[in-house]
């Protein structure tokens, strides 16, 4: 059983389009995250939700909007895609707490043409 | 703010050699948590270990070992008798109380040649 699953795995689209990435976890965790990994492999937090409440909102363009319909799901919607949005986006989940290991999905590779 | 430095960008070794990955961290918090993750060529991120700031005991898990030294703010990772399957990018990360995110280092790419 997949613990943290993201869809789609690959996303190729044109500049200016709007797209969504879905994430679901079946680990029973309270906290979910979105990270962005750039072309140099650097990983940076974007958002975090705990029990559907936003707890981390890093400096991210407001074209990016997370949505958590319940604590098992955290989706990422991106408006007006730009070339610089090309990256791998990882969803993760953990129990609440800074000492808790985060479990990551397989990533979604977003390519903007 | 938290900072994690992995000064080694790439390391290449021949199978069966030992390889040590350096990780140096910065934080003003006296309580903090350190992690190592592995990202193989298939792309997923795999949790390897967590260390609490108040527990300086070193740890060994099979061919993997970790050396935590608060005096030098380092949490180094050694792979003994490396194998081709160890080829991956390895990330060191840090978190602190009241800040639930992981602050990652830039990663070290390890290539193990047969």
Explain this structure.
- The complex is a heterodimer of chains A (113) and B (114).
- Chain A is mostly beta strands and 113 residues long.
- In chain A, 0% of the residues lie in helices and 56% in strands.
- Chain A is built from no helices and eleven strands.
- In chain A, strands 2, 4, 5, 6, 9, 10 and 11 form a seven-stranded mixed sheet that branches.
- Chain B has 114 residues and is mainly beta.
- The termini of chain B are far apart.
- The model of chain B has no long low-confidence stretch (mean pLDDT 95).
- In chain B, the strands form three sheets. In chain B, strands 2, 5, 6, 10, 11 and 12 form a six-stranded mixed sheet that branches. In chain B, strands 3-9-8-7 form a four-stranded antiparallel sheet, with no helix packed on it.
- Chain B is 0% helix and 56% strand.
- The chains are: A mainly beta (113), B mainly beta (114).
- The interface between A and B is medium-sized, with 29 and 27 residues.
pLDDT < 50 stretches of chain B: none
- Give the distance, in angstroms, between the N- and C-terminal Cα atoms of chain A: 34 Å
> How many runs of DSSP E, i.e. beta strands of chain B?
12
Oligomer: heterodimer
Q: Give the chain pair forming the largest contact, with residue counts.
A: A-B, 29 and 27 residues
- The total count of helices of chain B amounts to 0
Helix content of chain B: under 10%
Task: Please compute the radius of gyration of chain B using only Cα atoms.
Answer: 14 Å
Q: Brief overview, please?
A:
The complex is a heterodimer of chains A (113) and B (114). With 113 residues, chain A is an all-beta fold. Chain A has strands spanning 4-7, 10-13, 19-25, 31-37, 43-50, 53-57, 64-70, 73-78, 87-94, 103-104, 108-112.
């Amino acid at each position: 059983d997949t613990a943290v699953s993201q869809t789609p795995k690959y996303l190729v689209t044109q500049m200016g389009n709007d797209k969504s990435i879905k994430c679901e976890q079946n680990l029973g965790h309270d906290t979910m995250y979105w990270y962005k990994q750039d072309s140099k492999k650097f990983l940076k937090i974007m958002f975090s939700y705990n029990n559907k409440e936003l707890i981390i909102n890093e400096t991210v363009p407001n074209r990016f909007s997370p949505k958590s319909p319940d604590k098992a799901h955290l989706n990422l919607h991106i408006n007006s895609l730009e070339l610089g949005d090309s990256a791998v986006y990882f969803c993760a989940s953990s129990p609440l707490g800074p000492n808790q290991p985060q479990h990551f999905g397989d990533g979604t590779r977003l390519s903007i043409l | 703010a938290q900072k994690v430095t992995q000064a080694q960008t790439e390391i290449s070794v021949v199978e069966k050699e030992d390889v040590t990955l350096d990780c140096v961290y910065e934080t003003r918090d006296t309580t903090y948590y350190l992690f190592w993750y592995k990202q193989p060529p298939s792309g997923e991120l795999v949790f390897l270990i967590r260390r609490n700031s108040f527990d300086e005991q070193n740890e060994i898990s099979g061919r993997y070992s970790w050396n935590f030294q608060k005096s030098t703010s380092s949490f180094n990772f050694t792979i003994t008798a490396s194998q081709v399957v160890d080829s991956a990018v390895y990330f060191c990360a840090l978190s602190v109380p009241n800040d639930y995110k992981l602050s990652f280092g830039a990663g070290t790419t390890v290539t193990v040649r047969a």
